Amino acid sequence: MKKFVFIGALLGMSVLAAAQRPMVLRDSGLHKLKVFIGTWKAENDPDPSGQPGVSAVSTCRWSANGNFMIADQEVTNAGKTTNNLSIYSYDATKDEYTLTLVGIPGRDPFSIPITYKGDELYYLGSYTDDSGKKVFTRTVNSFLSASSYTFKVQTSEDGEHWVTHMQGKSTKIS
Fold first, then answer.
1. Any idea what the CATH number is for the domain that residue 160 is in?
2. Is 34 helix (H, G, I), strand (E, B) or coil?
3. Four-residue CA torsion sign, 140, 146, 147, 148
4. Over the stretch 88-115, which tens digit does the pLDDT of each residue have?
């Protein structure tokens, strides 16, 4: 269950693009993520097992000095709505992005790395399951345009072979 709270918090924020599409994430540094500025609504595809859907509304803006992108996100999971804050930062010397999340019920603030390839963003994580085994996680979103992307929430036992547990679409609403 811990992984799905974490995964739900990331619904509104991930990206994976098809090669034939125009580049959406073409800027450099933190401004590569400027496409997120505004308000987005994410919803997962219907769950074949009949589980309630997960949705999120994220409002993204630049910090006052422009060195961070801040996302205020409301996530509805199994009928319960929670609010969290995501802070995106960029280390130019390493060309690395970090997402720091605060406000997830039952979780201390934490950070995860973000990598990119073309119009794909990969939010990477891991956890140790109840049997003591490390499980790798990632959310991959593909930008279809500057106002739409798909997302996949995945896990892996080895960091190479991925199983999709949830997928859906996010659309810019303002």
1. 2.40.128.20
2. helix
3. negative
4. 999 999 999 999 999 999 999 999 999 9
CA gyration radius, the chain: 15
Tokens of 108: 């201390």
Structure tokens at 35: 């496409």
Dig out the tokens for 63 from the structure.
């910090």
**73 neighbors 85 (Cβ within 8 angstroms):** yes
Strand segments (E) across the chain: 38-44, 54-62, 69-77, 80-91, 96-102, 110-117, 120-128, 134-145, 148-156, 163-172
Q: What is the pTM of this model?
A: 0.84
SS (H, E, C) 68-84: CEEEEEEEEECCEEEEE
Enclosing domain of residue 47: 2-172
Torsion 26-31-37-40 (CA) sign:
positive
